[in-house]
Write a structure and sequence with these properties.
- This protein is of the alpha/beta class and about 325 residues long.
- The protein is built from eleven helices and 14 strands.
- Strands 1-2-4-3-5-6-7-13 form an eight-stranded mixed beta sheet.
- The radius of gyration is 23 Å and the shape is globular.
Length: about 325
C-alpha cells in the first residue's frame, strides 16, 4: 500500500511538472499591471525582433489595428509590444514607453497613431534608428519626425470626408476631435460643401463633443443632417437629439450597427483597421521608407450591416 501511495504522488508530481513546462512553452500574454500597456504573447522560440505599437485609447478601433499588426508580426517571427494612450487628453503611458528603447530587445520599428505632435517631439529626441510608421493619419508638415525614416499607412481621410459630404444634402453639423484622422475628414467635408454649409464642432474629448452638440440643438441651430467622423461618440443620447435628420458616421461598433439596422444611421464608412495594422508591420520591414500606403474603406448600410464582411469589425 505504501509503495502504491508513493507511485501516485510521484505520478502527480510528473503531471504537475509537465503542466508547468507545457504552459511555459506555449505563448502566454505578458500583461503589465498597468491596464493601458499590453504586451503580446511570447513565443517559445527566439523572435527576430520587436515592433513597438503606440496607439490611441484602449478601444475596439485601436485593438483591431493591434490585432492586424500582431497577426502579421507572427508571420515574420516578430514580437509586438502595444502601449495604449492613457486617456483622450493624456499620453503619459506612450511617453513613458520611450524611456528606454533598448529594453525592448532588437527593436525593429515603431508604429504610432498619427496626430500627436507632443509625442512625436519625444520620439525625435530619442532619435531611434528604426523606421517610424504612422497609422490612421499622416504626420503634419511640422512634425518633429517628418525628416526621419518614416512612412504612413492611412485611409485617404480627405477623400473620405468628401464622400461623406455627398451622402447628405444641404447644411451639416460635423463632430470631430482636435487631432487625428477625424480632423482631416471634416476638412474634406468642408472642401466638398464649402465652409458656409458646415457647422463644425471640435473637442478633445467625447463627452465635450456630445455637450457642445446638445447645446447647438437646444439653441435651435438650423441644419439638414449630421456627419459624425468617429464612432466612439455614437450612443442613444446623441442619436435621440436628431430623430428626424439623416446621420452618417465613421467606424463600426455595436451601437453603430444597431442604429444602422433601425434606420437612425444612414450609413458608416469603416477604414479597414485589420489591414491597417498588418500593412504597418510590413512597412517596418520595407526598404521604402517614404511610402504612403492606402487603406481601403468599407461602406456599410442596412443592406450589408449583418454580412460576414462587417461582423469582423464588431469583434
Amino acid at each position: 500500500m505504501e509503495k502504491r501511495r508513493v507511485n501516485i504522488v510521484f505520478a502527480a508530481l510528473v503531471v504537475a511538472f509537465a503542466a508547468v513546462v507545457f504552459s511555459g512553452c506555449n505563448e502566454k500574454p505578458d500583461t503589465s499591471s498597468n491596464n493601458n500597456i499590453v504586451k503580446t504573447a511570447k513565443s517559445s522560440k527566439k523572435t527576430d525582433g520587436t515592433v513597438l505599437l503606440l496607439m490611441g485609447t484602449n478601444n475596439k478601433f485601436w485593438n483591431q489595428i493591434v490585432t492586424g499588426a500582431e497577426m502579421e508580426a507572427v508571420k515574420h517571427n516578430l514580437r509586438t509590444v502595444t502601449v495604449f494612450r492613457q486617456t483622450d487628453e493624456s499620453n503619459a503611458t506612450l511617453v513613458n514607453s520611450l524611456n528606454d528603447l533598448d529594453s525592448y530587445g532588437n527593436l525593429r520599428g515603431i508604429v504610432i497613431a498619427g496626430g500627436d505632435e507632443s509625442l512625436e517631439k519625444v520620439i525625435s529626441t530619442k532619435n531611434p534608428s528604426v523606421p517610424i510608421v504612422f497609422v490612421d493619419q499622416m504626420p503634419s508638415e511640422t512634425s518633429a519626425v517628418r525628416n526621419m525614416k518614416h512612412s504612413s499607412v492611412v485611409p485617404d481621410n480627405i477623400a473620405l470626408g468628401k464622400a461623406l459630404a455627398g451622402k447628405i444634402d444641404g447644411k451639416v453639423i460635423t463632430l470631430r476631435y482636435t487631432i487625428g484622422a477625424t480632423y482631416d475628414r471634416v476638412e474634406g467635408i468642408k472642401m466638398a460643401k464649402g465652409n458656409d454649409n458646415v457647422i463644425d464642432i471640435t473637442a478633445s474629448m467625447a463627452e465635450d463633443l456630445f455637450t457642445n452638440f446638445r447645446q447647438r440643438i437646444q439653441k435651435g441651430t438650423q441644419f439638414d443632417g449630421v456627419i459624425i467622423t468617429t464612432g466612439d461618440v455614437i450612443e442613444d443620447r446623441l442619436i435621440d437629439l436628431v430623430p428626424n435628420k439623416p446621420v452618417c458616421c465613421v467606424d463600426m461598433n455595436a451601437n453603430v450597427a444597431r442604429f444602422i439596422r433601425s434606420g437612425a444611421l444612414l450609413c458608416s464608412a469603416i477604414p479597414d483597421t485589420y489591414e491597417m495594422g498588418a500593412k504597418a508591420v510590413n512597412q517596418v520591414l520595407s526598404t521604402d521608407s517614404t511610402a504612403t500606403v492606402p487603406v481601403p474603406v468599407i461602406w456599410v448600410d442596412r443592406t450589408n450591416v449583418d454580412s460576414d464582411e462587417i461582423k469582423k469589425f464588431l469583434r
